[in-house]
């Protein structure tokens, strides 16, 4: 019984304290009759984004497992390293098929890329071969 009474009292008190406003039939409301006018121009120029899709073929030198895929560090034929994020979700979105590879496998990945602060190129894999 106490479990029901305590919440009811709390609700009642919160309603009573929130209804303590001073506005009523005696209060006056004034309208602001100032007209404000401002013209805001809108930029309607359409620019196409730069293509940041990268295709890389390389050998997997390191794998870090994640919750829905893995990150594979690839070395291409010139020795440059790339980090490829290979996830089930990203591949499904792009129509690709997820496959688990192991260190030493040679793979080809494609997808949007970005560089981290150290200059290492990261690829969000959309296509996997």
Report what the structure shows.
The chain has a domain at 53-128: Nucleic acid-binding proteins (OB fold (Dihydrolipoamide Acetyltransferase, E2P)), CATH 2.40.50. With 129 residues, the chain is an alpha+beta fold. The longest helix is centred in the N-terminal third of the chain and has 17 residues, at 2-18. The chain has 2 helices and 6 strands. The chain has helices spanning 2-18, 88-93; strands at 53-65, 69-75, 81-87, 106-115, 121-124, 127-128. The protein is elongated and about 85 Å long.
Whole-number average pLDDT?
80
Task: Identify low-pLDDT runs.
Answer: 44-50
- Secondary structure class reads alpha+beta
Most strands sheet = 5 strands, mixed, barrel
CATH superfamily of the domain at 53-128: Nucleic acid-binding proteins
For the terminal residues, how far apart are their CA atoms? 67 Å
CATH architecture of the domain at 53-128: Beta Barrel
The best one-word shape is elongated
The portion of residues forming beta strands comes to: 25-35%
Given the structure, what is the number of helices?
2
**Percent in helix:** 10-25%
The number of distinct β-strands equals 6
Q: What is the radius of gyration?
A: 30 Å
Q: Strand-and-helix sequence, N→C?
A: HEEEHEEE
Please write the CATH class name of the domain at 53-128.
Answer: Mainly Beta
CATH topology of the domain at 53-128: OB fold (Dihydrolipoamide Acetyltransferase, E2P)
Strand order, sheet with most strands: 1-2-3-5-4
């Amino acid at each position: 019984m106490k479990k029901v009474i305590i919440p009811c009292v709390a609700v009642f008190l919160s309603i009573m304290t929130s209804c303590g406003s001073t506005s009523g039939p005696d209060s006056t409301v004034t309208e602001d009759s100032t007209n404000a006018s401002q013209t805001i121009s809108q930029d309607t120029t359409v620019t196409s984004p730069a293509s940041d899709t990268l295709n890389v073929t390389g050998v997997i030198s390191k794998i870090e497992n994640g919750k829905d895929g893995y990150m594979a560090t690839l070395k291409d034929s010139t020795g440059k390293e790339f980090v490829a994020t290979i996830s089930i979700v990203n591949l499904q979105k792009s129509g690709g098929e997820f496959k688990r590879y192991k260190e030493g496998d040679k793979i080809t990945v494609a997808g949007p890329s970005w560089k981290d602060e150290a200059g290492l190129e990261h690829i969000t894999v959309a296509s996997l071969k």
